[in-house]
Automatic annotation (TrEMBL):
This is Diadenylate cyclase. Residues 110-267 form the DAC domain. The keyword Nucleotidyltransferase applies. It catalyses: 2 ATP = 3',3'-c-di-AMP + 2 diphosphate. Diadenylate cyclase that catalyzes the condensation of 2 ATP molecules into cyclic di-AMP (c-di-AMP). c-di-AMP is a second messenger for intracellular signal transduction involved in the control of important regulatory processes such as osmoregulation. Keywords: ATP-binding, Manganese, Nucleotide-binding, Nucleotidyltransferase, Transferase. It comes from the Archaea. HAMAP family: DacZ. It comes from Halobiforma nitratireducens JCM 10879.
């Protein structure tokens, strides 16, 4: 009769590396004598002083997202390679690591999520809140009807200098931040009107109804996308902001950075 090592042995046999997601110091020390595979720590902080570390900008609650981000970050950092087989150890039910998954790293699965969160000026929590708002708006629309929306996140001072108001700014004298439930309801209501939302690095809503005026020269966006996407892409080339755009026509959410599209998300997949 086979033992558990025989049954589950395939999870660990011939792996190229082990990814430990936010391990405790004592758990990490158990791998001190492991020298036949690379041990990579993934987390928001390198609390264990690991030699090989991949930073998570957010403590993703969803395990699949946590592992996907760790793999993409590992490939980006050059600590794992396309095709590597990895044993990913993380926690689900307990305060300590309790689950192991075997995953194959694939450069073809690059989503752009690592670039969006880890290499942006705005705080990761702010970008996540805006992205989730755009996805929710894409799912539900405005009173059941599809809407388009444009959010510019980060480097707000420069963005304001490269835009002009289309109407009265309802947030001019307020100190509200994206992510608050009531504020999100307000943003959804205002999204049906023209113009972009400008949001600071820390999440303060600086303005609504902004007409962006960056030069579109040299900005590369996919064919079929309109003025909202062009403006969103162009402003990120001229500033250190990222833009998150909800398309009214196809319902997809796209993110731009450095004048290029780095992420495309179907809200119905979330």
């Amino acid at each position: 009769m086979d033992g558990l090592d025989d049954v589950f042995g395939d999870l660990f046999s011939s792996v190229d590396g082990v990814m430990l997601f936010s391990p405790s110091g004592s758990y990490y020390e158990r791998f001190a004598d492991v020298d036949d595979v690379d041990v990579i720590v993934v987390g928001t902080e390198n609390d264990v002083g690991a030699d090989t570390f991949v930073e998570l900008p957010l403590a993703f609650d969803d395990v699949a997202d946590r592992i996907k981000f760790g793999l993409e970050g590992g490939i980006e950092a050059g600590v794992i390679e396309d095709g590597d087989e990895l044993a990913c150890a993380t926690r689900i039910f307990a305060d300590e690591i309790d689950t192991v998954s075997r995953v194959r790293a694939s450069a073809d699965d690059h989503t752009g999520i690592y670039d969006l969160f880890a290499k942006s000026r705005a705080e990761p929590e702010v970008i996540k809140a805006v992205l989730e708002l755009a996805i929710e708006l894409g799912k539900k629309g405005q009173k059941g009807k599809p809407v388009g929306a444009l959010f510019i996140v980060g480097d707000a001072g420069k963005v304001m200098n490269k835009s002009r108001p289309l109407s009265y700014n309802p947030f001019e004298k307020s100190h509200v931040h994206v992510g608050d439930r009531i504020v999100n309801v307000m943003l959804k209501e205002f999204s049906r009107l023209d113009g972009a939302f400008v949001i600071s690095d820390a999440g303060k809503i600086v303005s609504a109804y902004r007409y962006l005026e960056p030069s579109a020269e040299g900005v590369d966006i996919p064919k079929g996308l309109g003025a909202r996407h062009m403006a969103g892409g162009a402003i990120t080339r001229d500033t250190n902001a990222v833009s998150i755009v909800l398309s009214e026509s196809d319902g997809l959410v796209r993110a731009f950075k450095g004048g290029e599209m780095i992420l495309e998300v179907d809200p119905e997949a979330y």
